[in-house]
């Protein structure tokens, strides 16, 4: 085997570039009332226009929140990417199992992760497991991933194409992608992929995609604090 198998219980989310500030919202909004004079608001003191940002958020005037950009580097299991890419309001470029040999990095939840589902769909909660259940998860997931990756390697060694050999791998294997969003798109993502008590429309995301969303929100709040504050104050509803 070319590499030692690695098991992780986290995700990687790094902001690699951004052109995003609260001032971006101001000049985009003001063009509707002052036309070319809105150029004077490029780079304006957004703090003096906090009320405008809150108004736009409250009344759901969404387009002024689109004139910015954030690009993230993300490593997460493929089952997370399946959920993430349902958000078609982002731009994605992902590593390809057709063009490169996939690294043996697999997700196994740690013992902080609730694993017992109680209730029915739409009205359930997750609770911690017991020692035996966590032991079974770790033992069987590690064994299954190891067996799958060994089979993948055997096929590659036999000259089988990467795009065929990868079919044996589980969705717990990690994949890497760049994700580019604007603030409006990101707020839509956060409204669905974060569980928050102050949300007007409660959401119950899978924990692993919420881990990605938490990191996105940290960077969003740092880059655009007034916009983020308005998002939270208005019930975490995307405009």
Brief rundown of the structure:
The chain has helices at residues 22-34, 50-58, 78-84, 131-157, 162-165, 183-193, 207-223, 225-233; strands at 6-8, 12-19, 69-77, 91-94, 105-107, 116-120, 123-127, 174-181.
Would you mind describing this structure in some detail?
This protein has a single domain (6-20, 68-233), classed as Gyrase A, domain 2 (2-Layer Sandwich). 41% of the residues lie in helices and 19% in strands. The chain has helices spanning 22-34, 50-58, 78-84, 131-157, 162-165, 183-193, 207-223, 225-233; strands at 6-8, 12-19, 69-77, 91-94, 105-107, 116-120, 123-127, 174-181. The strands form three sheets. The chain has a four-stranded antiparallel beta sheet with strand order 2-3-8-4. It has a two-stranded parallel sheet with strand order 1-5.
Give the SSE map.
Elements: E1 6-8, E2 12-19, H1 22-34, H2 50-58, E3 69-77, H3 78-84, E4 91-94, E5 105-107, E6 116-120, E7 123-127, H4 131-157, H5 162-165, E8 174-181, H6 183-193, H7 207-223, H8 225-233
Parallel strand pairs: 1-5
Antiparallel strand pairs: 2-3, 3-8, 4-8, 6-7
Tell me the overall shape: globular
- Gap from first CA to last CA: 50 Å
User: Radius of gyration from the CA trace?
Assistant: 22 Å
What are the segments in which pLDDT stays under 50 over at least 5 consecutive residues?
34-38
Biggest beta sheet summary: 4 strands, antiparallel
Helix fraction? 40-55%
Strand order of the biggest β-sheet: 2-3-8-4
> Which CATH first-tier class would you pick?
Alpha Beta
Tell me the number of strands: 8
Give the count of helical stretches: 8
What is the CATH third-level topology name? Gyrase A, domain 2
- Summarize the helix and strand pattern as letters: EEHHEHEEEEHHEHHH
What class do helices, strands and sheet pairing give?
A: alpha+beta
Overall number of structural domains? 1
Return the CATH architecture.
2-Layer Sandwich
């Amino acid at each position: 085997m070319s590499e030692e198998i690695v098991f992780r219980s986290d995700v990687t989310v790094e902001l690699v570039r951004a052109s995003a500030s609260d001032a971006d919202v101001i000049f985009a909004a003001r063009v509707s009332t002052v036309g070319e004079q809105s150029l004077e608001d490029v780079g304006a003191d957004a703090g003096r226009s906090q009320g405008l940002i809150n108004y736009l958020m409250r009344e759901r005037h969404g387009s002024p929140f689109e004139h910015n950009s954030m690009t993230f580097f993300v490593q997460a299991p493929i089952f997370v990417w399946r959920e993430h890419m349902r958000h078609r309001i982002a731009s994605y470029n992902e590593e390809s199992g057709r063009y490169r040999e996939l690294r043996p990095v697999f997700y196994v939840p740690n013992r902080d992760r609730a694993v017992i589902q109680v209730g029915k769909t739409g009205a359930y909660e997750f609770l911690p497991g017991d020692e035996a259940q966590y032991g079974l998860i770790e033992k069987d997931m590690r064994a299954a991933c190891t067996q799958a990756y060994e089979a993948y390697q055997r096929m590659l060694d036999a000259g089988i194409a990467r795009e065929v050999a990868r079919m044996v791998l589980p969705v717990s294997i990690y994949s890497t992608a760049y994700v580019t969003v604007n603030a409006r798109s990101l707020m839509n993502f956060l409204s669905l992929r974060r569980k928050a008590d102050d949300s007007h429309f409660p959401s119950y995301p899978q924990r692993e995609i919420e881990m990605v969303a938490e990191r996105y929100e940290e960077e969003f709040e740092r880059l655009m604090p007034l916009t983020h504050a308005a998002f939270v104050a208005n019930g975490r509803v995307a405009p």
